[in-house]
Structures are given as C-alpha cells and as structure tokens.
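Collaboration report, partner site 2.

Our partner group contributed sequences for two proteins of shared interest, and the home lab folded both. The records are reproduced in the order in which they were received, starting with the first partner submission.
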Amino acid sequence: MKPEIRPFLESDEAAVAALWRDVFPDAPLRNHPETDIERKLAVQRELFLVAVLGLEIVGTAMAGYDGHRGWVYYVAVGTAHRGRGTGTALMRGVEERLLELGCPKLNLQVRASNEGVVAFYEKIGYFVQDLTSMGKLLNGPDGGA
C-alpha cells in the first residue's frame, strides 16, 4: 500500500516529533523537533509534507523556496517503512509543489558518510555537486539550525 502524501496538520506534531527523534538520533540539541515544527508552520507551511499510511505518520519532508532555489530538509522515513517508495513519494511531492512555485532547482544536504542516503538521492535523479557547505549559528553555539 502506498502512503498518502499531504500537508502537515497541527494534530501530526507529536507523531512527527517522535519520528524525527527516531530517524535523527544524533541531531544537535538546537534541532528541537517541536521548535523546528513551530518555525516551519510560520513560513511556507504548505511545503511541510507528511506521508501517512492508515493512521500512522511514516515519513516527512520540509521544503523552502526563496525565489531563487529550493531546499529540502527533514526527509525522514520510519525504519519499518523504508525501501517501499515512501521517500521517493515525499520527494516527488516536494518537487511538484516547488515546480508550481516556479522553482528552477532544488538543493539538499546529506552527510557524505551516509552512503545509503546519498545512493537514494542519486537513484531519484540528484547528483553530488563540487561545493563546500558552510553555515553560521546566529544564536550562539546552541542556537540556529
């Protein structure tokens, strides 16, 4: 059975937070799921998608578009639901919504050591770019994203 891909609803918060804690156990403390959900709902909430199978949230994807490039974050699929097309369905949902907004290119970041995830993205048409990823925490060492 294929999951339904739909926008996030406030009633999904606890299930999404639990999924993220399970899928991203080594996330920095500044990536507090409930806070990240609250921040996303304030900006382009229509680009926050969940995959639902029956009554269970089995995956998520958050995206953003600044008028120049799209970015995708928090692509997460529960361990028991991997390898069944859920991640691909979420990414296609993100891509469709960004295309509707006129987005010409979608970017994402993956830890280079996460070979399985890199292979997943390559399989659905993404490619490794020769770029250096840089960041700056705007709220000190424990703030920002």
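Second partner submission, folded after the first:
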Amino acid sequence: MPESLFKKRVIAVVRAIPYGRVASYGQVALLCGAPRASREVGWVLNRLEKEIEVPWWRVLNNKGEITIKGSTFSADFQRKLLQSENIVVSDDFLLSMHDYRWIPTGDEMKQFELPSDYLKTVNEKLRNY
C-alpha cells in the first residue's frame, strides 16, 4: 500500500474513534487493511500530532499503556487528554482496554471501504479483543 494511502487511512480510522474510547495501534492497522502495520501507525501519528484535529491520543498499545516516545508531547500530556474525555488512566499510564476499547459497528466499518472477505477477518479479530 502506498505510504500516502496508508496515511489517509490511518487519519480516517483515528478520526472515527469516538470521544471517550480508545483503540490500539494494531487495531488501527487492521482497520486500515494492513494488519501487520501497527508500528507504522505509530510513525504516522507521531508525524501528525501537531494536527490536533486528529485525536492521536486515543491510540495506545494493546495493553492499554501509553507508550509515547520521540514526540514533542509527553505521556503525561496524552494522559491528561484522555482524562479530559473521562477515561481513567493510572499514575503508571495504564487504562483498561476492556472498558474503553472502541469496537466499530458494521455501519462504522463501511466507511473504511474494506473488501468484504477481509471484513470477516476484521470482525473475528475484533471479537477476540
């Protein structure tokens, strides 16, 4: 997938994460159609973070841990943004993915224009979270 298309997909998925919900880097990659590109999702978001209209702070690792690195923003800043959305984040930068993970509905997933056979894989994966 060309880098510019991947970037557009990452932005679309991250913008779709509702207020008060989070997703993992791997989940964003999966919804972009590139299930093994979680690290690349982080790189895209790191380069976009100055564009505050993209809610990059809603994306964490799969354990629910803030692992922001090499950024102009700190883990504490990300925690404050999440807390402003009523997400409980501990002093050691952890939150409950079980409580806050966004699982998109079928209608929400249509906007990502994924092939129907791939959507079956996505649905199975999301059910296992």
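Feedback sent to the partner group on the second submission included the following. The chain has a mean pLDDT of 91. The chain has one domain: 3-127.
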